[in-house]
Design brief:
By secondary structure, the chain is α+β, with helices and mostly antiparallel strands. It is about 30% helix and about 25% strand.
Amino acid sequence: MENKTKGEMLAEELFYKPKNGYDVFDDSEIEKAYAYCEGYKAFIDECKTERECVEKAVTLAKEKGFTLFDRSKSYKPGDKVYTVNNGKAAFFFVFGKKTVDNGIYIAGSHIDSPRLDLKPRPLYQDHDLALFKTHYYGGIKKYQWTTIPLALHGVVCKPGGETVKICIGEDENDPVFVLTDLLPHLAQDQVSAKMSEAIKGENMNILVGSRPFKDDKASEKVKLAVLSALNEKYGITEKDFLSAELEIVPVAKARDVGLDRSMIGAYGHDDRVCSYPALTALLDTQAPEHGIMTMLLDKEETGSDGLTGMKSHFMQYFFEEIAENQGVSYRDMYRHSVCFSADVTAALDPNYPEVMDLRNCSFLNCGVSVGKYHGARGKSSTSDASAEVMAFVADTLDGKALWQTGELGKVDLGGGGTIAMYVAQLGIPTVDMGVPMLCMHAPWELVAKLDVYSTYKAFYSLFNR
Ligand code: MN
Ligand code: MN
């Protein structure tokens, strides 16, 4: 060993610097991380909507012995239950050796992603072309959604109770859809407009057909042909769009990125890249000391409002029913619990370093990023985890999961919210953490494999405390 100076040794002892996973992990650990990500890639290709995520998560949980929670039953340590909130959010719970008034460990993440929703009356014909009107969901840069292959996913609920599932564009042989854009030759006004105004939300109409129905007398024959095709395949009429949730999402599948295959590009990493680790870490945990919970939530991208968002009391009721089931105080349960609110954060992008405080940002390959707070404009709309919770995080993760810390960007530039503050509202100490990413909210987002795996390890360490 080379001789270190006193100063070098002291610096080693006193300084803190995030470590790159490739300097920390040995080859077999890297291999494990890459193998774990194959499971994630399969999951994300199958789950492009919140409903699809819930369905898949419940299937995976059932395979591991989870059953639908039943208030009238009594449960023992190690028993596994779940509940589903209206098909779009799901909660998975494993009873610990200690009753829940001793606190439970919670991982919460969201399964909705930015996309284009069909309007209630979407279909129309214009200049002999058929189009779907959309209303975008979540914060998107609209121009990114033009001229890429798009698929249609969702459900149509028919009066009478039948639910028809729709998925067009994922099979190789399926047709796909597209949001058209202007040719550069005629885009002089568009390209000199402000980027936020270059594509108007009201103009995000998806091209779905051009061939008229063969009939001399009928009107709107292209629209008729599209409806006729939908009716043939799914038995629906135009009125059925009123009781439907149909989402336009990118067709693109998850792919390895980079010659070294170290990254993954996919649609909807935000926030399924935290949801999958939160779920699989729970499914892999046997006989925990404390009760453990994974919450997969909807509507985060639009403010966590509504029936299936984090602000809904549904989750609270489920928590309280579990406490009641054990005959203990749910308030004690809240007080003694800890929640890792799992959501993605921005990683440093070498093309745009100017948006980051380079001393307080997250980097690809440096592990799961713990954010004491996010929010914007002077820490508004964030839960701002206490010093005590941050110490709990260090205690849980050090030596078990690679982690770093980072703010979402420079102080006055913007920011973003998560579900953390709504969990904290219940009196549950909560901290933000998640996978650092590039191209957040784009139709195709980027994460690093070691960070996905580190996020899994972080939840696993929490659940196995
Ligand atoms: Mn998110
Ligand atoms: Mn988001």
